[in-house]
Amino acid sequence: DSNDDIEDVSLFDADDDVSRRSKKSKIRHPVASFFHLFFRVSAIVVYLLCELLTSSFIACMVTIILLLSCDFWAVKNVTGRLMVGLRWWNQVDDDGRSHWVFEARKVSAQGSKTSSEAESRIFWLGLITCPMIWVIFAFSALFSFKVKWLAVVVMGVVLQGANLYGYIRCKVGSRKNLTSMATNYLGKQFLRQVSFPGFWKPS
């Protein structure tokens, strides 16, 4: 399948020369960190409060979709690159085949990355939590028969879920590597249980 073709390339060779003097706990990109959460949290707040603020469904829908679209663009093109050194996109070659490209910033010669731990926590917390909230909204709209809101909620799940999927692929590699990582994790957990301290100690 052409959609599964993956090209792993390095991310921004020039970024290897960025100064590493700041501490890992410091937020080095406060504006990017703010907008990483602003659009997605605003979309959730508007969804929860829109019926109290206005009776116009169209105005609420347009506002939420606009916020979700801004969030998708900002996270995909800006905050992921600045905060965690990851980037993904799709490109079509001359033969018409689709390629998914997943980039990760190279580790520097000293073994340290330019992104801070605080920014990384903010990035992944926002990236994982918000799609889960939209999934909850989807079930709520489905079971409460709010059909008109279902399309808006599905849009939230799709846009934010796409970014989550893309950045997980950037982080762990291809789909094969993702399966391998899960298998290795389960294997390690099994070995820990087997080699638990005192397990082999005679009674």
UniProtKB/TrEMBL annotation:
Record-linked InterPro entries: TVP23-like (IPR008564)
GO cellular component entries: Golgi membrane
Alphabetical UniProt keywords: Membrane, Transmembrane, Transmembrane helix
Membrane topology: Multi-pass membrane protein
Single GO BP term: protein secretion
Residues that span the membrane, as ranges: 30-49, 55-75, 122-143, 149-168
Subcellular location: Membrane
Family, per entry: Belongs to the TVP23 family.
Record PANTHER family: GOLGI APPARATUS MEMBRANE PROTEIN TVP23, GOLGI APPARATUS MEMBRANE PROTEIN TVP23 HOMOLOG B
Name this polypeptide is given: Golgi apparatus membrane protein TVP23 homolog
Gene: Tvp23b
